[in-house]
Amino acid sequence: MGESNEANNQEVIGKRSSFSEKCVAESDIEARGDSSSSEDETLIDMVEVENDDPALSKKIHLINNAIDEIGFTWWHVKLFCIAGFGYSADSQMSMIQSSVHKYVDLQMKGGGYPVATQIGYAAMISGVLIFGFGADLIGRKLCFNTSLLMTAIFGFFTGGTSSYAMYVIFYFLSLLGAMGNLGTDVSVFLEYLPSKYQYLNTSMALWWGIGQTIVSLLSWAFIPNYSCKDEDNCMSAVNRGWRYSWYVNSAIVLVGALLRLFVLKLQETPKFLVSNGRDEEAYNVLMSYARKYNRKCTLTLEDLQKCGEIRQDYYSTKKDGYSLKKLLTTTKINMKLLFKSKKVTKSTILLLLSWTLIGISYSTFYNFLYIYISEHGSSSELNSTYITYRNGTIENAVGIFGPILAGRMIRIRHVGRKGTMIFGAIASMAVLFGYTTCRTAAADAGFGSATYFFINIYYSCLYAYTPEVFPTKCRTTGVALCMICVRVAGAFSPVIYWFGSESGSSVPIWVCGALIGALAIVSAIMPFEPSKQRCV
Predict the structure, then answer these.
(1) Cα(241)–Cα(94) distance, rounded to whole angstroms?
(2) Are the CB atoms for 301 and 283 separated by under 8 Å?
(3) How far apart are the C-alpha atoms of 374 and 502, rounded to whole Å?
(4) Secondary structure E strands in 34-169
(5) Percent of the chain that is helix, strand, coil (3-state, to 5)
(6) Residues 291-344: pLDDT tens digits?
(7) Which distant-in-sequence residues (6+ apart) come within 8 Å of 95 by Cβ?
(8) Reported pTM
(9) Phi, psi dihedrals of residue 285, rounded to the nearest 5°
(10) 74-267+336-532, superfamily in CATH?
(11) Based on CB atoms within 10 Å of each CB, which residue in 34, 84, 415, 478 is the most buried?
């Protein structure tokens, strides 16, 4: 019996030794920049975005090895669905306003400038500021678990309001939570994902299309049947459709929030923990998943501790706690990390530019398109509320498959993330230019479906690429900064919508197509291609 135990101990020691030797060998490859070896390039970390702290780089490398060793489990399937549902909730809560604002205005405001839509962009910016910057200080777990709950609760309140002022306030608060959620979903999933399955981070954007389809279906069901026709006869009793849309969408989001709390039971991500000097907690999280799913994990706490101490003075909360002062200090430090070298600076600037361009072009297209079609269409069907919501449902449902194709494309050799984004941008530009010829309901459904399909190829890849090329320590800060750019740019769309409704010009569509086409050039010159590397 003693000999058997000794043999087992020697086997474990051998496994741990080989684990450490493998880490050293891979680190040597990274130091030489040798990626000429071939099929196993996925084992090389993107150390260039983490090289300001050698100790942390080594710890992240060990965490990556451990996650790869544990492999893909049933828990990752649940995380894909429940974190992905955050994408759905974001698109649902931001899209409701575009489907109900006409009837809210008729009942409470009587038309005029779309104030609530403009306030919505302020909520989006505030949400990513608070939750995005905060998640690099207080952790991913708390933001991940609370944001959807906040979204659902205030969504119910929005549907129950009786004045336009209260509608705007509760809409702001609901969207605040939804946008805060978006920045953490992609980071949480990425930081738990084995390198072999990183492509799923791109495919997870299919949930965006699911959320949009849910909103379109509910709008199609409620708005035509339970809405007033004009301002003179638009009391609440005959205009309940917009309320039903808010109630049902909020109930769906609430179910997702409860699943996060009671089914997924997310633990803090190990990469966040080691980035904050909490090695033992990171180790325990990994071991708990390994034991739960009966997977091998030869990482030891000693392996992590041997890497040395990280620059903990930057990230420790012992001095200031979770205070506003600490948040501002951490954000300032993280912002510097986003511009710490020429290559990282170039990457950050190009990402910010990409999000700005897609923000103004996509939002303008989305808000302006139906004005243009209704004024230039030869078919009276295009003015039908029923046809409008029917076509919207078809188009958003087709858009679900764009991220699925994107997830497949990024795995093709010599295509990768950048090639997929280039394809999605050029194809979207071509379809948008063709949209100017749309005159019938059938053409609208066809062009709309193609637009959502191809734009979601680009969009899903950009969503996944963005956190992949940001350092772990400032990942959600970087994502939040990009979200701010897209929302600030998108805030101009109601202005274009307002003036576009007066002129009936097709110029905004041509401009949107050109801006989306320009994204292909921006994608081509991005310095990182993480398709064949492990994200840090």
Answers:
(1) 17
(2) yes
(3) 13
(4) none
(5) 80, 0, 20
(6) 999 999 999 999 999 988 887 554 444 445 556 677 777 778 888 888 888 888
(7) 211, 212, 215
(8) 0.80
(9) -60, -45
(10) MFS general substrate transporter like domains (1.20.1250.20)
(11) 478
